[in-house]
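Q: What does the assembly look like in three dimensions?
Context provided by user:
Components: two
Sequences:
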Amino acid sequence: MSRAFNFSAGPAALPEPVLRQVQAELMEWQGERASVMEVSHRGAAFVECAAAAERDLRELMAIPDDYHVLFLQGGATTLSALLALNLAGPDQVADFVLTGHWGEKAVDNTQPSMKVSIAASSKAGGYSDIPARDGWQLTPGAAFVHYTPNETIHGVEFHDIPDVGGVPLVADVSSNFLSRPIDVSRFGVLYGGAQKNLGPSGLSIAIIRKDLLGKHGRALPPIFELLNQANNDSMFNTPPTFAWYVLGLVLKWIRAEGGAAAIGERNARKAAALYAAIDGSGGYYRNPVAPAARSTMNVPFFLPDAALDKPFLKEAEAAGLLGLKGHRAVGGMRASIYNAMPEAGVAALAGFMADFARRNG
Amino acid sequence: MSRAFNFSAGPAALPEPVLRQVQAELMEWQGERASVMEVSHRGAAFVECAAAAERDLRELMAIPDDYHVLFLQGGATTLSALLALNLAGPDQVADFVLTGHWGEKAVDNTQPSMKVSIAASSKAGGYSDIPARDGWQLTPGAAFVHYTPNETIHGVEFHDIPDVGGVPLVADVSSNFLSRPIDVSRFGVLYGGAQKNLGPSGLSIAIIRKDLLGKHGRALPPIFELLNQANNDSMFNTPPTFAWYVLGLVLKWIRAEGGAAAIGERNARKAAALYAAIDGSGGYYRNPVAPAARSTMNVPFFLPDAALDKPFLKEAEAAGLLGLKGHRAVGGMRASIYNAMPEAGVAALAGFMADFARRNG
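A: Here is the predicted structure of the complete assembly.
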């Protein structure tokens, strides 16, 4: 056996040096005479491990001091439900800008708890573009504006942060978390699951401007009250310690790789190489997204005939290229090229695609 | 370095053969050419891994077919909040029997969503006993009766299942999950975090009688609707795959050890040995719990003088006995002796306690 290039959409590839370290210290972690999975989250060793992850994330993303950084469970979907409960009362309005599946999911999980208005949507066009900013119908006095900067399934990404005036911008960054530098101060909330760019599944992160919490006026179960997690270093209850530890190692790896700027440049090169392979195939491969809205993280593409999908996937697997099947909602192929995907993986995929097109053209 | 005996209350010791297997296959899992952390939860390999864990849990606990088995996130605390939302409407009543800290927490997380009545509590006596069944003031027509069969902090355990007539019994079994055979059919819901007896933190399990879901009449965010998880094999959203995989290995280890009956007998022997060390110390060590309500899982004990706590903990650590500090709510010591703690660990602790008492008596 040997490790292959893994293009899964999430859970996704992790940096190999991180996995090697996890393996090496799995039985005995840091002189604790126990696995990191076995030690108390309240012991000095794990508390420092957790705090180091927060420090590294704050440094890598240049998170201002007036933001909480919360390490939570339940994925972005659970967080979207909790944010609705924590950021506003039931009579307030949340504006949504929809550019794909996950924006719709966030609406579903917000709607039962407050008013929702769809400020803009590219659904009519099959989520292949971003609605022009000047057409957004924002609600005056909205509690927040929610959008999904990168839509994993449709492969649509905002390359600029939209200006929504003084209303807090809430962004589900599950699939482009720390994929390049970002101005956190432009947001009210950045949130997402870790399992694409930052770690294993089972851990989610919320970066929340401090003044936004604790004003909803609802009677919530304490475990749903994000302020309780903020006031307890995300240990209001037992956290997912192993996932937190692995995330910490991934953050150290990103630092060693040069930080957000270097990672962002590499991600841009990877995306450029893959879109070049698609656009340079003489129409054999097709990406349906408007060029200005193409994702650097998730690249969906279609073959000339859906009957070729199976042989493509089978031969790709044999060539050591895994996880390329598109999401069932859209079909075709999808290559997820998150932070941990090396440039060599993208080059191998591009080479395979050219060879496959030649043999099946 | 070498591994020590770990008496942590949770996250807690895992079986060493499980950790060795995790370590061995960490880089490449089951011919997938990727870590188990990196593969899609919707791929055939992980789907089978997840299903095998459910099958093994159903077999080990003899769970009837009319019960869902859900693999979730957020710990028992989150689950108690979700159960209140899923099992009843806001005007219904939940009866609580309190025998310690975690029962109180469940009340806190139920109260905002429905009516709560404390049917019985041993708080006045410092949670050192179980309120006699004939004094419980159950509410006619209650939606459910909640109790905590084993209270981790106070070390109080029910050794029989209380009879509450036809009202569904809801039990937080976080700290005695699969610690011995149990008649699941006596319960409406058994739920708990995995991080004490069954796996790493970040995974919780709910075993729910099927007829209890979907009748609450509330407008819930879909991610809070447990029926959605039930209808999607607990993959309504991305599950904590690594924790689920480790739990599966722990269940296979329990099977190999002889199943619930054999584990239960071993746990009884371990508890008997430790209480004998306390009771046989001529009053040097003291466990405050009524003998009939003593926990087989969590054994709190006090030294004759709190000034001895620090040297006791320091010398115990040097002797390879970890995690013995009592919860801050009660002080003193606590030995958690879950499924993965070998009898040799308890024998080593008992020997150390006798030696320490001799030297500091």
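Follow-up: The longest strand of chain B covers residues 115-121.
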